[in-house]
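Input record (one chain):
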Amino acid sequence: MRILYWIRGPNKAKRGQSCLIGFCLYVYFTSGILALAQKSSHTRIISNVELVQVPLIVFDEKGSVAINLKKTDFRLIDDGVVQQILHLDRVRRPVSFVILADLSDSMTSKIPFVQEAAFSLLDPMDEQCQSCDEYSVVAVATRAHRLIDFTRDQEDLSRRFPFLLTAMYGRTSLFDGIYLGATVANQDAANQRRAMVIISDGGDNNSRYNLYETEHLLEEADLPVFAIMAGPAYEPLFHRADKQRAKGVPWPNLPGFLMAGPEVEYIGPAERQGPHNLRVLTQGTGGGVFTAKTVDDIWRIVRTIGMAVRYQYVLTYEPLHEAAVETKRSKSPDKNNRHKIHIELYPQEDFRGYSVPYYRDSYTDPEQF
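The corresponding structure, as predicted from the sequence alone:
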């Protein structure tokens, strides 16, 4: 009111001066109020709200990847407390695949298995999205090194695989290869969704890193890891000249390789430990280990892995923990303070035969990083 009074005064000079002073005061107080409002709004936006996302794979009663599930079909339990699922996402996403190919001595007689598994991963899930995914290849022998940088050219990969994925005749640095593959995925992948596919017997006898260090790396890498092993009855099937790949596609022309004779013993201590290594390395990432017992199993297994990663379910929730649980956790000597997660389909009688075998079953409080 006082500002308006001076604007209406009789003296023109005073009136102009009053207008200027009034305008400055108006801008000053208005800017201050807006700044406080923006600061208050900004404070609310960055409030400490913790959201957890859990990728998972669901199989139906026929062993196929389950589709068309709703968030109300899941029950998620975090440290014994049932959580409210905020979002369920399942759409086709482009994936950056790291193919970790074991080409060491112990895999010499299984090189065709390595090649065919790598070929099968290139099969597109959607013809309209053939260029969505990208692939990088890491080879494991005495040393781990990258064979192929990330590329979306599947035709070029199909031509190069038979000549690149050949025996290297060395010891096995599998854990080093996993470290390299995780680094490649983290630094060079163009797609937000990534996955590693290990084609190996799981043995390691030459790495700088050990199993525990590699497991810890993968737990924090946000990288689902799948492993494909060849069953004991697998090798003789490759010698059938008339054998066709899945969908009637002929076998690629493979370069010659040295087959191990019956007197050569490749199943040493490292290889016997292989299945255990792969289970430990994959189970904390949301992936798993698959064994191909026949040639036809390769395409089915790799197809399942590809579909599961490309059309993966992702559950999002805001953790709610009981006070007693938090009190116990705050007194725990374990500095990692990992939260345990359990996911199931609910009600169970509506999903007989379904399974949720692959998801990350724990996470660490963000404050611990």
